[in-house]
Design goal:
mainly alpha; 2 strands; elongated
């Protein structure tokens, strides 16, 4: 019986054995996209079936899913169509953390190199494979964090955009005050009897009435 192929996320965590990086990444993406179609009206953000099939392995990803869906709900950004992206984020986060733990375990005194001896060869010193996994996972995580507002900078930017969009909703506008009606009263005519050319100002003294 042939050896059973590892889960794509586990293959990535192992450093893509057999140089299957492209195929493995596509498999992770496909699994995440399937999660998008699992949403139901009763529970649009149920834990993805992928995580439920291997609860022990995906324990950290499941915890992240529950925490982040609640974060999105309270911020008003939770949408069923975001399941795929959020699934990928949880998977890559778990891989990043697993790699960091493996690095800590294998290099307890710090650093990122380790010693190994190939079959029939001499001892060598090389960079720990976990460093490569972390390096590849970080830009993916940062991009998704920016999309969801999972860091202070992107959260602030999204908040500004959301505030602007809300301000454009007609029902949020205050009704404009009605324009003042034109007065129908005829303005009083100025008394020009004693100043027919209107040359006097308030400091001038008007002439006394004409004697009859």
């Amino acid at each position: 019986m042939g050896r059973r192929k590892d889960d794509p996320a586990l293959q990535a965590a192992k450093g893509y054995p057999g140089k299957r990086k492209g195929m493995t990444d596509r498999a992770i993406k496909a699994q995440a996209e399937r999660a998008e179609h699992e949403a139901t009206d009763a529970d649009p953000f149920a834990v993805p079936a992928l995580f439920r099939k291997a609860p022990a392995y995906y324990r950290r990803a499941t915890d992240l899913w529950k925490s982040l869906t609640e974060t999105l709900r309270t911020s008003g950004r939770r949408r069923p169509g975001y399941r795929a992206a959020l699934t990928r984020y949880c998977m890559w986060s778990q891989m990043y953390e697993d790699a960091a733990e493996e690095l800590r375990r294998d290099c307890p005194k710090g650093g990122s190199t380790y010693k190994w001896t190939p079959v029939g060869g001499e001892e060598r010193v090389g960079q720990h494979p976990a460093v490569k996994i972390m390096r590849e996972a970080e830009p993916i995580l940062r991009a998704i964090e920016d999309d969801f507002g999972f860091n202070p900078r992107s959260d602030s930017a999204l908040t500004r955009v959301e505030s602007f969009n809300r301000s454009q909703q007609p029902d949020l506008f205050a009704r404009s005050a009605p324009a003042p009606e034109a007065s129908s009263a005829v303005p009083a005519e100025a008394d020009t009897g004693s100043d027919p050319l209107d040359l006097m100002n308030s400091a001038d003294t008007r002439s006394p009435p004409t004697m009859q």
